[in-house]
Design goal:
It is a single chain. The chain is an all-alpha fold. Helices cover about 75% and strands about 0% of the residues. It contains twelve helices and no strands.
């Protein structure tokens, strides 16, 4: 009985500092965002004007907010689907197939993840550059100089797709390694039994590999959807700054622009509240639609 009380006391003493830090650095700032979103200015400014829900009413009619919301949804849906699909496929190939240079490809795929966002932005600025960019240069070479250079980062038709390519390239390797660690634990005898039954590689993937890796896929899917919002903000900030004419803005970029560039602090935090609620709702939806019985092996 005495040992049990001492154990509970030890656990409590260990949790108190973490709980205190959580309250100070997570709970209080989050609640403060909701509070400040009800004011017109605030922040570093000493002037405050309580406007209630007016900031949120303005958001609904703000074309820049609507466009940034659309860009955010596009990047979440397209980037997540493509990244997860390619990461799972590459992980399956590198964990199941035996070929020369296998370890080399594992390293190469992971390298983009260890690069800073500034480096990633610099690489893709060189790839997408209009005058001396890699893509335009290659097209000029193929078409013998008859190609009209495409402004990938300067045209609203291409800029969001170009940013999506950069985010996908940066993230694939990290999730590929995570899936490989899970797939490597699947017993080989399951694949041998499936092979005897006449199942090919594709059927083995959908009947064995994917179901037995689903819990990891589900966890990383939720994590990536939320982190993608932050990654997109960083890459856009470094690569395009939200241009041209706000065509590549996402919710976080627009929030930062309003709160810290246009001095509309309360309005910027109203966007932050939308981001918070949107992320929470998105997490709940993903958790719901990806829920399934865990398969054992």
């Amino acid at each position: 009985m005495k040992n049990s009380k001492q154990k509970r006391k030890f656990i409590l003493l260990g949790l108190i500092p973490a709980f205190f830090l959580y309250i100070v650095f997570i709970v209080y700032p989050t609640l403060n965002v909701f509070k400040e979103s009800l004011y017109k200015t605030g922040g570093l400014s000493g002037k405050k004007e309580f406007v209630g829900l007016s900031n949120f009413k303005i958001l609904i009619k703000d074309p820049n907010f609507i466009r940034s919301f659309q860009n955010t949804i596009f990047l979440i849906v397209v980037v997540t689907i493509v990244t997860m699909f390619m990461a799972i496929v590459f992980a399956s190939i590198l964990s199941r197939e035996k070929f020369k240079g296998q370890n080399f490809f594992r390293v190469i795929f992971y390298i983009p993840n260890i690069l800073s966002i500034a480096v990633v932005a610099s690489i893709f600025a060189a790839i997408y550059g209009m005058d001396q960019g890699l893509i335009n240069g290659f097209m000029q070479l193929v078409k013998s100089g008859n190609h009209t250079n495409t402004p990938f980062l300067g045209d609203r038709l291409y800029v969001v797709y170009s940013i999506a390519g950069a985010i996908i390239w940066q993230a694939i390797g990290y999730y590929m390694v995570m899936y490989m660690s899970t797939m490597s634990q699947i017993p080989e005898h399951l694949y041998e039994a499936a092979k005897i039954d006449g199942a090919g590689r594709i059927k083995q993937f959908f009947d064995i590999t994917l179901p037995l890796s689903w819990q990891t896929v589900r966890t990383t899917l939720t994590f990536y959807v939320i982190s993608n919002i932050n990654i997109a903000f960083q890459i856009i900030k470094a690569l395009t700054g939200g241009g041209p004419n706000g065509a590549s803005l996402t919710l976080l970029n627009y929030q930062f622009e309003q709160a810290y560039t246009n001095s509309a602090y309360g309005y910027g935090l109203a966007i932050g509240v939308v981001v918070f609620l949107f992320s929470f709702l998105l997490t709940a939806i993903i958790s719901r639609i990806t829920k399934r019985d865990i398969m054992q092996y």
